[in-house]
TrEMBL record:
It comes from Vitreoscilla stercoraria. This is Uncharacterized protein.
Length: 229
């Protein structure tokens, strides 16, 4: 049986990583390096970095090299690769942009769950997505294809799965209003010329549900927590 996971930030992180991985899976191998990238194990294409590394691409790259030392030479660590890091802090979204539910409300978790006491925090979370390749053409192809994936209407949001008291339900994560992923060029590694790094700064908006006791009898509900795409 699945463990109750409502109210946990790591569920949001895992949902967004799955969303990014779905975009990586669609990348067309238009360069030899991207063909190599597509042939790597899925877990090797995107590395989730500790939160302290957000905004520190050099540290991301150094840690990656230490963990994937090839033939005793860290410089041979396989590229291309992508990194993602989430900031340590999350922030409540101002009430003029999204309403949290502070008082417990009586809600359905899904269409058949029955009723529970639920409150919800509307939050934002900054993260950084980094693309690393030896040549500019491959790095640009990676960012272009990931941008196109995110720009599809159906991909403007992603589902966050929750489990409580044997019931499964979802809320929806979105990007900050007006989001347009832009490439920031990062110079690292003592000015080496044979590496290209682009970074995206992203702000995720999401609802964090906190689910309390089940209500055994009720005549009417306030709302339904289930959010459908």
């Amino acid at each position: 049986m699945s463990t109750n996971n409502t109210g946990r930030q790591d569920v949001v992180k895992e949902a967004f990583v799955r969303y990014i991985m779905a975009g990586i899976d669609e990348m067309l191998p238009i360069t030899p390096a991207l063909q190599k990238f597509n042939n790597m194990p899925r877990s090797s294409r995107l590395r989730v970095c500790p939160s302290r590394m957000v905004d520190d691409v050099q540290d991301m790259l150094n840690t990656y090299r230490r963990s994937s030392d090839v033939n005793g030479k860290a410089i041979d660590s396989p590229l291309p690769v992508m990194f993602i890091a989430f900031a340590k802090e999350t922030s409540p979204i101002p009430t003029d942009r999204g309403r949290s539910v502070a008082d417990f409300q009586t809600l359905n978790l899904n269409e058949t769950s029955g009723f529970y006491q639920v409150c919800m925090q509307h939050k934002s979370w900054r993260c950084q997505l980094v693309f690393v390749a030896h040549e500019h053409e491959t790095a640009t192809a990676m960012t272009d294809q990931m941008r196109l994936y995110m720009q599809r209407f159906k991909n403007h949001r992603w589902q966050i799965p929750w489990h409580h008291d044997g019931e499964d339900f979802e809320t929806t994560g979105t990007f900050e209003d007006g989001f347009e992923p832009m490439d920031s060029v990062i110079d690292v590694d003592g000015g080496r010329k044979n590496i290209t790094i682009f970074a995206w700064d992203l702000t995720l908006n999401y609802v964090l549900p906190f689910v309390g006791d089940k209500v055994t009898a009720i005549n009417a509900t306030d709302a339904n927590i289930q959010v459908k795409p």
